[in-house]
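re: ur question from earlier - yeah i can do the single chain one, its not a big deal. heres the input i used so u can compare w yours
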Amino acid sequence: MIYFNSIFVLAIVCSQSNAFTIGGGKSPNTNQAILRIAASNPIIVTCTATKHHPKRCTSTSLYDKWDDIVDDDEDDEEYDTPLWRGPPIPKDMKYNEFNLKRQYNNFIAIQSVGGPELTNDIYARDPDSDTFWFAGKIARISDVTFEKAVARQYPLMEEHSARLRPRELFDKNGLLELWAAPGDSELDVAYNRPNVLFIKMARAHETEGADDVKNREVGFKGEIYEAGEEGFRTQRTEDGLPLKPEIQV
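and the output i got, formated as tokens:
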């Protein structure tokens, strides 16, 4: 054991390979090393040789102030969803806490200045169903169209929708449709008012200029259910119009 000021390191050398990899269960071919930094921050490092990553080396900490930082050099497979069926996802729109927090903060900042005129309500739909589930809201700066704002954030919002409604939507993650409605129009939607039209959105690779939009120029506030909440939904036609007659009050 070697001491460097208050930092000491206890390590067990891996006998199977020169690589470390995160996660996985214990096996006869796996050794572990525990590094303790200033005797306060345990880091579990698991050494595993695999046929796909014979030289891969990573580690994970039980607590680390850098946990929320997204490393652009990490392998894509760390963030990919196994059931994802859509096109490749930009790293800044993969479904993780860091990206969700950033886009939420962007939404609040843009909405506070631009108001509902620069926001839209977003609904997710299984293409084989006429039920549209409210998934959240987007905001954008005035120089960005709502079509580009949705396209740029499409994979983040789609997976949020799939996780929000796993029974109805998760099996179609990567194939879901997103539809946009005017901002803060939930009440009119609930009453099936025909003046509220839903517009089907396209993905970034189908929307010219969407990839040029900076993530700070758009925001997303995902829907979150309270305990016992069933979730807001509406039935619509293929044209985005109410399927049922208007409710008169």
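Residues 146-164 form the longest helix (19 residues). not sure if urs matches, ping me
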